[in-house]
């Protein structure tokens, strides 16, 4: 039997353990996970639980599977755009179309495969064998800055800042429609979509508080170029919040399915431009900027 461990992040707090595992482990069906729980193969903080158990942030989940259930990850010599690196961490400029960590259908070509090759054994192990070094993530088709931790001490320090919402995260995005106000704040709770577990939605009943600050950088005839700063970090937060305003992101097939996009795009036009944090060793505040990707610059030129 192979053992797997991962730590619950804030975005999954309050979810049932079986539902949370099904969301994180796409290769396992919920019924199979419930079978593992019934057989006491799933432990939360070292104790067996029931399927109805609601997980909390920083809970440690441990479960065992036959070796055939999860493939072994292999380091791959994938070119990485490294914006900053030292002995504790690195900040990577993730390209469009790259999955951050392995999941069903994506066991190679991920950012994790690339950083395993680049860093060797120097990666934190808190989030388990499928997500070494990964303390937070961005969507497959979102580009930009992502912190990768090389040791558990750095991982815990960065994770604490994420939990306290003290990390600065500024994004650039293009959205449908012309936003009239110069700046604003969207304060709407976000939770899982009631019928589609892979989607998020504004959910006043069971959602968790989510706050996005935005300001207009440039208005075009049919679109608006904006900067968004996250106060919280819910899954798909900017995409859901802008869609809730009637201004979904250009190219977002999930949250803007009925909006026509005249451009050839791969997913939403969203870029994690800047990330600012206290260094885990020096405590010095630092900011790392990821330049706009070429496709985004080209699109802005067209809209001009």
Describe the structure.
A hairpin with a 3-residue loop joins strand 12 (211-219) and strand 13. With 304 residues, this protein is of the alpha+beta class. The mean pLDDT is 91. The strands form three sheets. Strands 5, 6, 7, 8, 9, 12, 13, 14 and 15 form a nine-stranded mixed beta sheet that branches. Strands 1-4-2-3 form a four-stranded antiparallel beta sheet. The chain is built from six helices and 15 strands.
SSE sequence, one letter per element: EHHEEEEEHEHEEEEEEHEEH
Described by strand count, sense and barrel closure, the largest sheet is: 9 strands, mixed
Supply the number of helical segments.
6
Low-confidence regions: none
Structural class: alpha+beta
Mean pLDDT: 91
Please tell me what the overall shape is: globular
**Helicity level:** 10-25%
- Cα radius of gyration in angstroms: 19 Å
β-strand percent reads 25-35%
């Amino acid at each position: 039997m192979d053992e797997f461990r991962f730590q619950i992040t804030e975005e999954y707090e309050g979810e049932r353990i079986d539902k949370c595992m099904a969301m994180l482990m796409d290769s396992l069906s919920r019924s199979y996970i419930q079978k593992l729980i019934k057989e006491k193969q799933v432990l939360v903080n070292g104790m067996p639980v029931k399927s109805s158990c609601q997980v909390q942030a920083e809970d440690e989940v441990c479960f065992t599977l036959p070796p055939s259930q999860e493939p072994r990850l292999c380091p791959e010599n994938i070119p990485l755009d490294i914006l900053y690196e030292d002995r504790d961490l690195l900040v990577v400029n993730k390209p469009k179309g790259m999955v951050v960590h392995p999941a069903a259908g994506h066991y190679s070509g991920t950012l994790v495969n690339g950083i395993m090759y680049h860093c060797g054994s120097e990666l934190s192990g808190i989030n388990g064998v499928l997500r070494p070094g990964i303390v937070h993530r961005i969507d497959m088709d979102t580009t930009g800055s992502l912190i990768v931790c090389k040791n558990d001490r750095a991982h815990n320090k960065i994770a604490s800042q994420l939990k306290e919402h003290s990390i600065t995260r500024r994004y650039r995005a293009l959205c449908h429609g012309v936003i009239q106000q110069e700046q604003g704040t969207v304060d709407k709770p976000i939770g899982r979509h009631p019928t589609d577990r892979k989607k998020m939605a504004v959910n006043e009943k069971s959602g968790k508080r989510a706050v996005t600050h935005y300001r207009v950088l440039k208005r075009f005839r049919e679109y608006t170029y904006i900067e968004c700063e996250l106060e919280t970090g819910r899954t798909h937060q900017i995409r859901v919040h802008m869609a809730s305003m009637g201004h979904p992101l250009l190219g977002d097939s999930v949250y803007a399915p009925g909006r026509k996009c005249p451009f050839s795009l791969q997913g939403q036009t969203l870029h994690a431009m800047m990330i600012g944090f206290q260094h885990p060793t020096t405590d010095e505040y630092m900011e790392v900027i990821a330049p706009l990707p070429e496709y985004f610059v080209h699109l802005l030129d067209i809209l001009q």
